[in-house]
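Write out the bound-state structure for fe (ii) ion.
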Amino acid sequence: MSISWDDEAETGPKSTANAPGAFSGTTLMNQAAVDAAAPVASRAPSPVTASSIATAPASRIQVVQSMPAAPVSTYMSATESSAEVALRAAAASLNGTAKLDSLLGESTARVRVDEKRIINCRADLNQLVPIKYQWAWQKYLDACANHWMPQEINMSRDIELWKSNELSEDERRIVKRNMGFFSTADSLVANNIVLAAYKHITNPECRQYMLRQSFEEALHTHAYQYIIESLGLDEAEIFNMYHEVNSIHGKDAFEISLTREMLRPDFETETFKGAQTFLENLIGYYVIMEGIFFYSGFVMMLSFQRQNRLPGSGEQFQYILRDETMHMNFGIDVINQIKIENPDLWTPAVKEKSTELVRKAVELEIAYAKDTMPRGILGLNASMFEDYVQYVADRRLEKIGLAKVYNASNPFPWMSEILDLKKEKNFFETRVTEYQTGGALSWE
Ligand SMILES: [Fe+2]
Ligand SMILES: [Fe+2]
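---
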């Protein structure tokens, strides 16, 4: 099986660069409401703010997401078994139960592949097959084949170096600031999937990949925690940097504002505005967070590895980079497929807004790079990051069918070589512990 996580991989739908025009009511607005029962606005404890999403306990966000119960009769059909009726009745009687149509599938008919759509689909979402989007299913399989765990990577040389006096203050700043950004960034990504985006992707093979991606984001948070703990960094200082360091906070606030839009009680994807907001969320997370905001940090941390320093952290970042590249490519495929299925959605105004989001992100990422590495070091300097962030942004814009903006050249061609991890080593030969398969697990 080929593992296609290269950021040049073209496995999914191609972007559609045109099709401006009036929004088609039949493509989005005529779909029956998958989530027609709107969340109860009055149950939200207060208006959701950027900071409240960042810090609110999960229970609070769940309250915002809860739905009113609907009459049991709403859910009955002539073909239901008594067990199904009992299940519906039991679930509907729960306080704040979600509308069962969205859990059991709106239709009880067998699924036809031509009914499947990325958003606003009416077919049963619990039936994985027949698969329509092979690119999504293949990414799920590839991601599972790439499984790794942070604690399998040997950190002893990193610990030795960090305790020595061989790292300058500027080098330590780079490590700490990047840990400060990454240690909470993956939590924001996971929260956006689980609390905001997943529900609106109405396709089971895409959802299958998003569930895998969510787990990988947890693994990445685990990896950063593992590096922070291994090096003996001040955990409270590092994990709270996204509140305390402006250049980190700026990037996160940008992302959180996009999540906030989708957590509004009346949010839905069946209107032009809702679908546009959802597209912006996907661009914000899959193109910008996964594809731009991570990249200065990747370059800096992998630059240590290129000098054969902090090799354990470097290896963690290599595996994370591989995962994030696949996440980004999945998101780009989803965005392009939504455009194909809803061609009137991709208006000149939407394209302009999308480009503007990327421009703003480039400013934030360059500011972050300069703040994290104020002086030239590791063979890097600030102007190289300006070029690199712009170069990367142009590539992302083109992948979703937008014109590039910067025409910058790539000062770090070695990054694409690092992406090809298989050339470097065989992961399964360098692991410090054996990966536990199902047959090896102890159940005691
Ligand atoms: Fe991640
Ligand atoms: Fe990711």
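---
The chain has two domains: 33-115, 134-433.
Residues 1-5, 17-80, 92-99, 432-441 have pLDDT under 50 and may be disordered.
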